[in-house]
Amino acid sequence: MRFIESWTPATLVATRDLTPSIREFLIKPENFDGAAYPVGSHINIAVTIDGRPEARSYSLVGEADRTGYRIAVRRAEDSRGGSQYMWSLAPGARLTITLPASLLPIDWARRHYCLIAAGIGITPLIGAAQALARRDADFTLHYAVTSREQAVYLDVLAPLLNERLIVHAGNEGRRLNLDDLFASLPPDALTLLCGPIRMLDAARRAWTGAGRALSDLRYETFGSSGSLPTEGFRVRLADQAIEIEIPRDRSLLDVLNGAGYEVISDCRRGECGVCAIDLVKIDGELDHRDVFFSEQQKHANEKICACVSRARGTITVDILHRPDAL
Ligand code: FES
């Protein structure tokens, strides 16, 4: 593993509904000392889905405070079950969580920053906005939502950022135009972005189209959104008469590992590429949900990140499985 995960017992202290579909959870681990954590940090939470133990990542909202770790979870019917588990919890529930870790490093030496969030993707950027505001950095936070009623934490962000906060509410006709935005940024600007996979793909296209270095575009994803609805699909193993069903609430990675076909993994969020396996054939459609492969690689359909990507129909993969190695 790239990160050594240290699991610790914790208690769900309180919940608060931010909108009818977004709930905030305040979680306090045992021996909590309120120590600062890096901007963009997330915690993993052990969840139970259909009786199976799994883990889900959630970004921490805002900078550290003494009350505990704050996350916000959107209840998504089209999810892999983590949000429904979280929403089933009541204050006092016992949890097991990992300590905060960040996959969204910020280069604090830049003079200009741009923060872009869509929907629940605002969560990792609140702490970034607080840190940049404290440094009096030159930045703007663009927050894209379907309607202003869907925007959360405006009570924190609006007084902190004033005109540095721009809410792009779709129902107000104020859509975010990434091409125009990136064209307007100073050359040394660093952009941090968190949103659904389609937005990340569009941002990467617009960013490189603007002649900018991809290393100056940093992004977060949880691998839970794709271009197709989340549904079950089938996977065949090349050179073997085996076909396996991947249910809508389980990943290809978990099902293959559960069936004894070892596929190694690391981030389990579609970011590192460690779980990539070879694609041999697609009878249906592929839904790449990772941010590891480039657009060209995704079009080539030669590999799939088993931790997050999905399909419609049946795919054939080669996991280099040797039956006598089991
Ligand atoms: S484990 Fe990192 S992309 Fe799948």
UniProtKB/TrEMBL annotation:
Pfam families to which the protein is assigned, alphabetical: FAD_binding_6, Fer2
Keywords per UniProt: Dioxygenase, Oxidoreductase
Domain FAD-binding FR-type, chain residue ranges per copy: 5-107
Gene3D superfamilies registered for this protein in UniProt: 3.10.20.30, Nucleotide-binding domain of ferredoxin-NADP reductase (FNR) module, Translation factors
Recorded GO MF terms: 2 iron, 2 sulfur cluster binding; dioxygenase activity
Membrane-crossing segments per the record: none
Domain of life of the organism encoding this protein: Bacteria
Enzyme Commission (EC) number: 1.-.-.-
2Fe-2S ferredoxin-type domain residues: 233-323
Xref: InterPro entries: 2Fe-2S_ferredoxin-like_sf (IPR036010), 2Fe-2S_ferredoxin-type (IPR001041), 2Fe2S_fd_BS (IPR006058), Beta-grasp_dom_sf (IPR012675), Cbr1-like_FAD-bd_dom (IPR008333), FAD-bd_FR_type (IPR017927), FNR_nucleotide-bd (IPR039261), MRET (IPR050415)
PANTHER family (alphabetical): BLR2392 PROTEIN, NADH OXIDOREDUCTASE HCR
Protein's UniProt name: Phenoxybenzoate dioxygenase subunit beta
Source organism of this protein record: Bradyrhizobium ivorense
Gene label: pobB_1
